[in-house]
């Protein structure tokens, strides 16, 4: 959950923030190989597939709205498969200075459905979870960024790569 909250934290800061005009607009997540990324993060689990659609809109006032939809992942370990479906949204206030983007999440809602399937396919167990602001551990995040007319590349201040680092203008 912590990792997902970190990934969803792209941009933001206090009201009346200044935002680089290049960042203003509508963006679509461009993540070429999420399965490979999550295979490294979830070891020793065997990750079979991970995918998600992401869209973000950044206003001239620095308000960021992000929606993740059709998220799906399947992984297995020791004869048990796990399938997850997820979607979510969050709002943040953003400001930029130089090549730094600071974000503070002000609203969030994430839905998860996780199903565990035994090797013989019997007794699937499903759990549905809905999380809001109370579960967001890191509300303030800082990213360095490079913005062009067509792309936005982010890098969290921790230096850790993320499958949510690359965006294409819509």
Describe this structure in words.
- This protein has 170 residues and is mainly β.
- It has 2 helices and 9 strands.
- It has helices spanning 2-8, 34-41; strands at residues 25-29, 46-58, 63-77, 80-97, 100-117, 125-132, 140-147, 151-156, 166-169.
- It has an 8-stranded antiparallel barrel with strand order 1-2-3-4-5-7-8-9.
- The longest helix has 8 residues, at 34-41.
- The model is unreliable at 1-15 (pLDDT under 50).
Characterize this entry briefly.
The chain is mainly beta. The protein is built from two helices and nine strands.
Residue fraction in strands: over 45%
Low-confidence stretches: 1-15
| Helix/sheet category | mainly beta
Q: Give the beta-strand count.
A: 9
User: Treating each run of at least 4 consecutive H or I residues as one helix, how many helices?
Assistant: 2
Overall mean pLDDT: 84
Largest sheet: 8 strands, antiparallel, barrel
What Rg is obtained from the alpha carbons, in whole angstroms?
Answer: 17 Å
Residue share in helix:
under 10%
Q: What pattern of helices and strands is seen along the backbone?
A: HEHEEEEEEEE
Distance between the termini: 29 Å
Biggest sheet, spatial arrangement of strands:
1-2-3-4-5-7-8-9
Large-scale geometry: elongated
């Amino acid at each position: 959950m912590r990792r997902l909250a970190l990934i969803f934290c792209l941009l933001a800061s206090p009201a009346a923030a200044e935002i680089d005009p290049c960042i203003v607009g509508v963006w679509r997540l461009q993540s070429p190989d999420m399965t490979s990324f999550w295979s490294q993060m979830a070891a020793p689990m065997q990750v079979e597939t991970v995918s998600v659609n992401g869209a973000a809109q950044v206003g001239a006032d620095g308000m960021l709205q992000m929606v993740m939809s059709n998220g799906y992942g399947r992984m297995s370990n020791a004869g048990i498969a796990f399938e997850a479906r997820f979607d979510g949204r969050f709002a943040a206030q953003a400001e930029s200075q130089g090549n730094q983007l600071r974000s503070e999440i002000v609203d969030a809602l994430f839905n998860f459905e996780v199903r565990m399937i035994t090797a013989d396919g019997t007794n699937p167990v499903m759990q549905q979870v809905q999380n809001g602001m109370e579960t967001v551990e890191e509300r303030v995040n800082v990213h360095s960024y490079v913005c062009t007319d067509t792309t936005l590349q982010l890098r969290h201040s921790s230096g850790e790569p993320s499958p949510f680092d690359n965006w294409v203008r819509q």
